[in-house]
Amino acid sequence: MYLPALALVLGAVFVWALVSNRARSISAPIYFVVVGLLLAEGVELLHLAPDPHLTKVLAETTLVWVLFADASRVRVSTLRRDAGRYGRLLGIGLPLTIVLGAVAGMALLGLSPWYAVLLGAALAPTDAALGATVMTDERVRYRIRQTLNVESGLNDGIATPVVTVAIAVIVLQAGSTTDFGLAAALLGLPIGVVVGLAIGIAGGTSLRIAHKRGWSSEAIAGPAVLALALLAFVIATLLLANGYVAAFVAGMAFGASAGRGGTAEVYYVEQTCGLASMLCWMLFGALAVPTLAADWSWSILVYAVVSLTVVRMVPVALSLLGSRVDWRSVIFIGWFGPRGLASVVFALIAVEDLHGVPGAVDDVVATIGLSVLLSVLLHGLTARPLVAWLAAASQPAETGPSTPPDVQVRHLIEPPRPKDAIPRPGS
What is the Cα–Cα distance from 250 to 72, expressed in whole angstroms? Predict the structure, then answer.
């Protein structure tokens, strides 16, 4: 039965490439979650034994590549204009989201404080890939798209230490031991930054020099950059640092130091993580949805709805007070905070690290799963109508080009393609 299932999976990927531009009313995650669910529960061809560790490896690898590719398109010089806005969302909005999510977890689900913190932190990061329709629609002002993209690129790395600390405290309270503690989690951020800078600068500089002197082969440069992104993550993890921050910073450093020579290689990374993301969402539909559905309840559904609305939108509105962002844009930014791969990875980390630890880990994971599923559906279906709503009442475009020529962010505009590159599938 494995070959028929594999044939259907590969066929589904190819079919999406054929219709993705036409089927803009749905997103790639919606399509692949439904395909996975149909293969597992409908035609009953995809029978996979749930393996949290292997699924976690795939999800982590995909997230690392996405973070690296996102960051490599960001130019630090272009972020200075809206640095205050990014600081508000990440320094005020994100902590408030975690706190409000934790309070809601205790009030609606009866979770203990640290399990509630774990849930709030796991659902705080956003995923720009789930809002690809928004990110590529030029009717949405460039600064709004850039804000959503930068926020989603950084908030999962910032939330990681909170998740790590929550898991460590839960394990300690249960009488077990752990290698991670508060000090390690806090030190993980700056160490991750240092590792990312070192790997990114070394990789980008060496690639630029090798291209200039004719040493490197373009046929292997793309896979080499894939390995570079994972190298930053692995080295940071070995040092008990934040691997996701390391991957994102490595991408920024690589993009700044590789110059124009790194464009084709980053495009290769984007294509690869695009395929990996499709497989992740298909596995989510095939494995997570049927497995977690038995634990879903009305209280979990209420929490998921509250998490996607009040818990996200109120902190965003409060953090942007006084920032001269109009109220329609505030609502738009607040709503398009879809939950995606980062939340799935955090759920898998909780399953692995809290295995055998008494507590409410099953409720936490089930809540994360339902919240991500609702996010996939609701954010995917509302993207185009809300873009039209925002565009209809939009003020005249800001001075200057809508997309500055020196900025190329993965979800905002298409990168320059190599001459022989195939058209990019919908993300």
Answer: 8
Burial class (CB in 10 A: 0-12, 13-18, 19+), 381: middle
Burial-class residue 283 by CB neighbours within 10 Å (0-12, 13-18, 19+). buried
User: pLDDT 10s per residue in the chain (427 long)?
Assistant: 467 777 888 888 899 888 877 776 677 888 888 888 888 776 555 565 556 677 778 888 888 888 888 778 766 666 777 888 889 999 999 999 999 999 999 999 999 999 999 999 999 999 876 666 777 778 888 888 888 888 887 787 788 878 888 888 888 887 765 555 556 666 777 888 999 999 999 999 998 888 888 887 777 778 888 999 999 999 998 988 888 889 888 988 998 888 765 567 777 887 888 888 888 888 888 878 887 888 899 999 999 999 999 999 999 999 999 888 889 999 999 998 888 888 988 888 888 778 777 777 889 989 999 999 999 889 888 888 888 888 887 654 443 444 443 333 333 333 344 444 433 333 3
Domains of the chain with bracketed CATH: 2-392 (1.20.1530.20)
Nearest to 282 by CA among 4, 5, 94: 5
Sign of the alpha-carbon dihedral angle for 55, 278, 421, 127: negative
CB 124 within 8 A of CB 60: no
- Measured CA to CA, the distance from residue 181 to residue 141 in angstroms comes to 42
Contact 281, 303 (CB under 8 A): no
Amino acid code (one letter) for 24: R
Q: For residue 148, which of 408, 389, 412 has the smallest C-alpha distance?
A: 412
Which tokens in the block code for residue 171? 């394990």
What is the CB neighbour count within 10 angstroms for residue 98? Answer: 27
pTM: 0.78
Residue 259, Ramachandran bin (φ over 0: left; ψ between -120 and 50: alpha; else beta):
left
